[in-house]
Amino acid sequence: MKLTFLGATHEVTGSCFLLEAVGKKILVDYGMEQGPDTYENAELPVKPADIDMVLLTHAHMDHSGKLPLLYKNGFAGQVFSTTGTADLCEIMLRDSAHIQMFEAEWKNRKGKRAGREAVEPLYDMDDAVGVLSCFVRCEYGKEIRVAEGIRVRFVDAGHLLGSSSIEVWICENGVEKKLVFSGDIGNASQPLICDPQYIESADYVVMESTYGDRSHDAPVDYAVALAEVIQRTFDRGGNVVVPSFAVGRTQEMLYFIRHIKQEKLVKGHDDFEVWVDSPLANEATNIFREHMWSDFDEEARELLRQGVNPIGFTGLKTSITSDDSRRINEDMRPKVILSASGMCDAGRIKHHLKHNLWRPESTVLFVGYQAVGTLGRALLDGTKSVKLFGEEIDVKAEICRLPGISGHADNQGLMRWICAFKEKPEKVFVVHGEDTVCELFTDRLRTEKGLDAYAPYSGTVFDLAAGRFVLMAEPIRIKKEQPSAAAAKVTKAFAKLLAAGQRLIGVIRKNEGGANADLDKFTRQIHELCDKWERID
Question: N or C: more exposed end of the chain, with fewer CB within 10 A?
Fold first, then answer.
C-alpha cells in the first residue's frame, strides 16, 4: 500500500500520482506539464500496460492531457471520472490530439527543408479516441467499488464543470486507510457551478496549493464592471475583444452578458451582438448546456425553472469556420468578441487583435491570468506595439483587466477546505503549487493548524500502511543557463521589490473609507515616489 508522487510537485502543472494497493496500480491524473518547468519529473515506474485504472479529477490538460499517450503506450484499463469530466474530455483530448498532429506536421515541413529528421506527434487522434473509450462515468457522492478492497467517491470540487476531489478507501491485509486527493479546489461563489464541497475525514490528504500564498481581489459586481467597459467602448464605436479560455471562462462571460442584457445595463446598444469565435469554446458551451440541470448551482437552476437559459440570449452568435471568423471584423458595428486562446499566444484571438489593437475606439479586455512571457501579459504591461503575422501593430486600443473570477481557491479558501476535516489527517502532502508557494503553504499548515504537512518532490514514495517514507526524493533542477552572481542578486532584489509592491496594495485597500485629506496625502506621496523612479534610467 504505497503512494508515489510523480507530477505537480513543487510545480503547478503535470498532475500525476501512482497508488499501488491490493495488487492494483492506479494513476490519479496524468496531466501535461505546461509553461516553464523547474524540476525534472520522475518517470512512470511501471509500464502503461500494467496500469489497471486511472482516477481523473477533472478535464483540464494539466490533469488529463497525457491520457492519450498512456493509451498509445499500452494502457487498456478504465478511466473513472464524473460525467461532466468525461464529456469535456471528449472535446478537449480530441482538440489536444489535433494540436499535436498539426504542430508535428508544421515542424516536419520546416525540418525537411533543413534536412532534419521527422518528428512524431506526442499522440494522434486515434490515441485520443482510444482512451476516451476507456472512460467510466460516475455520479457525484456515490461510492463505487473499483476493485476488491478499493472504493472511491467523487466529491464536487467547484473548480470546473465536472471537477472533483476524490475519496479513496483501501483495505489490504487487515489495514484500512482513507486517502483524499483534493484535485483543484474551486473558488466560492463562482457563476454557474457549485461551491466546493467539504470532506470531513481522511488518513492522508494530497492537497493542491496553487494560490496558497495570496488572497484574491475583493469581489466586485462583475456584471456591472463588465457593462461599464462595454458601454464606454460601444459609445466610442469600437469592439470589446475578450481573450477568453474556451472551457469555463467563456461560459462565465456568457452568464454575465446575459444578465447585462436582461437588466439593460448597457444603454443605447440594446441589440448588441456577442460572438464566440472558438470551435472548442462552442463545443464546451454545448456541454455546459447539457449539464445545466445536473451540475449548475442553485442560482442558475432557478433561472432554468423560470424558463431562462443562464448562458443564452438574443444576439449571441457562434463562429465555426475561418470564413465566419474573418467576417466578424468586416462588420463595423460595435460588438463583443470572445475568442481563444486566453493568453493570446495562439488561435483566432490573434486575428482579432490584429484588427482591433490599432483602433483607439476598441478595447481589449482581459478576464483571466496572463503568464509572464505571453502576448497577453505584454499587452497588460503596456507594450506600445506587437508583431502579429509578420506585421508590426501599434497598440492604440484601450487595454484593461477585470478582476478575475479565479477558478482556484485562494489561501483563505484552501485553509477553509483543510479545516473542514473533523480530525487531523495523519499527513497532508502539499502539491500543485510553485516551488516557494508549496513550502510557504506547508509551513502555514504546520505552524497555524498543527498539521503534519510535507511538500514532496517528484519520485517520493510513501508507505501508507506503515505511515513512513520509503524514499524521500531530492529535487533535480532542470539545467538552464545559470545567471551570473550579479544577475542573481538583481533577481532577488526585484522579487523583494515586487513583494513590497504587493504590501503597498494591501495598505491602500486597508485605507478605503479613510479621511479624504489623508488619502490625498497618501496619493501624492505615491506619485512623488513614482516620479522619482521613472526618471531613473
Answer: C
Using omega within 30 degrees of 0 as the cis cutoff, is the peptide bond preceding 341 cis? yes
Same-domain status, 339 and 443: no
pTM for this predicted structure: 0.84
210 and 226 assigned to the same domain: no
Residues 256 and 332 in one domain: yes
Q: At what angle do helices 279-290 and 249-262 cross, to 10 degrees?
A: 70
Which distant-in-sequence residues (6+ apart) come within 8 Å of 387 by Cβ?
393
In which residue ranges of the chain is pLDDT below 70?
Answer: 36, 219, 371-372, 404, 480-496, 498-500, 502-503, 505-506, 509-510, 531-532, 534-537
Q: How far apart are CA 434 and CA 186, in angstroms?
A: 18
Closest CA to 326 of 339, 341, 342: 339
Q: 3-class DSSP state for residue 530?
A: helix
Same domain? For 43 and 189 the reply is: yes
Q: Is residue 81 part of a domain?
A: yes
| Contact indicator for 192, 300 with CB cutoff of 8 Å | yes
Pairing of strands 468-471, 453-454: unpaired
Closest by alpha carbon to 445, among 425, 469, 466? 425
Contact 138, 166 (CB under 8 A): no
Asked if 207 and 418 count as a contact pair (C-beta separation under 8 A), the reply is yes
- Phi then psi for residue 122, to 5 deg, are -55, -40
Closest CA to 131 of 210, 239, 53: 53
Query: Whole domain around residue 264: which residue ranges?
Result: 222-401
Residues 137 and 264 in one domain: no
Q: Check whether residue 236 and residue 183 sit in a common domain.
A: no
SS3 letters across 224-236? HHHHHHHHHHHHH
Give the count of domains, the chain. 3
DSSP tag of 48? G
Locate 171 and state its grid cell. Answer: 483495505
pLDDT attached to residue 494: 64
Q: What is the pLDDT of residues 203-219, one digit of tens each?
A: 999 999 999 998 887 76
Is 478 contained in some domain? Answer: no
Instruction: For residue 187, give the DSSP letter.
Output: P
Whether 172 and 265 share a structural domain: no
Q: What is the pLDDT of residue 537?
A: 41
Residue type, 500: A
- Residue 477 maps to a domain: no
In a domain, 479, yes or no: no
Cα 108 to Cα 30: distance, rounded to the nearest angstrom: 27
Name the residue with cell 464524473.
Answer: 82
Give the span between the Cα atoms of 340 and 277, in whole angstroms: 7
- The cell for 356 is 482591433
Same domain, 290 and 367: yes
How many CB atoms are located within 10 Å of the residue 451 CB? Answer: 22
Matching residue, cell 539545467: 479
Q: Residue 165: enclosing H or E segment and its boundaries?
A: strand 164-172
Cα–Cα distance for residue pair 188/286, rounded to 1 Å: 24
